[in-house]
Specification:
Elements lengths: L5 H21 L3 H24 L5 H21 L12 H24 L9 H25 L8 H40 L2
Helix pairs in contact: 1-2, 1-3, 2-5, 3-4, 4-6, 5-6
């Protein structure tokens, strides 16, 4: 039986917040959507700190945390495409790129699991930067919509949101490239190891 740590319990709370966020967005409660999303994002930082400080870093916890992050991000960006005026959303091409990156990384991990008995879960620096920029971009988008839903001007925030969109594009591409290089290096090492063992 897998024993869940305090950090893992916080991760589970983040997963529970996802359907609440979906309901808030679907029913037009944009202020609540912003509050729920920020709470979920903050919980991501908290469980990471707790896991490191209390030495509760586990393989299962790392996988659970990654799945929670993906579920939160993918769900939110999908709901932020094609939103009606005067609300703003995320460009469809950016959402497609984010999902494409994640699918490629998951396929790569699956291939590594098939070709190797077990691989370490590795969070690269570019992935951490990408996640941070993406979360801030989503929060800025939700903030604009929360202000507009309350008939408050958000003109000053829109240039920042647009800049963050391009920042998300850059970090998505960089992290995809770094994960691709890392994955191929593991495959190359495994192939060389197998070749050496055969001599």
């Amino acid at each position: 039986m897998v024993r869940l740590t305090l950090a893992s319990h916080i991760t589970i709370v983040r997963i529970v917040l996802i359907p609440l966020l979906v309901m808030a967005l679907l029913y037009g409660h944009h202020v609540w959507a912003l509050i729920i999303f920020i709470s979920a994002a903050v919980s991501d930082a908290i469980d990471g700190v707790i896991a490191r400080k209390m030495k509760q870093t586990t393989y299962v916890g790392a996988i659970l945390d990654a799945l929670a992050d993906k579920a939160l991000v993918i769900t939110t960006v999908l709901l932020l495409t094609g939103v009606p005026e005067p609300l703003i959303g995320l460009p469809l091409w950016l959402v497609a790129l984010i999902i494409w990156r994640d699918v490629q990384i998951m396929l790569g991990i699956l291939i590594l699991h098939i070709t190797q008995s077990r691989i370490p879960w590795k969070s690269l620096w570019s992935s951490k930067v990408h996640t941070t920029v993406l979360l801030v971009t989503i929060a800025a988008t939700l903030w604009v919509n929360a202000l507009r839903a309350e008939s408050v001007s958000a003109l000053w925030l829109i240039p920042l949101q647009r800049g963050l969109v391009w920042g998300t594009l850059a970090t998505t591409a960089i992290s995809w490239y770094q994960y691709t290089v890392w994955g191929f290096s593991l495959l190359y090492e495994d192939r060389n190891g197998s070749s050496s063992g055969g001599h």
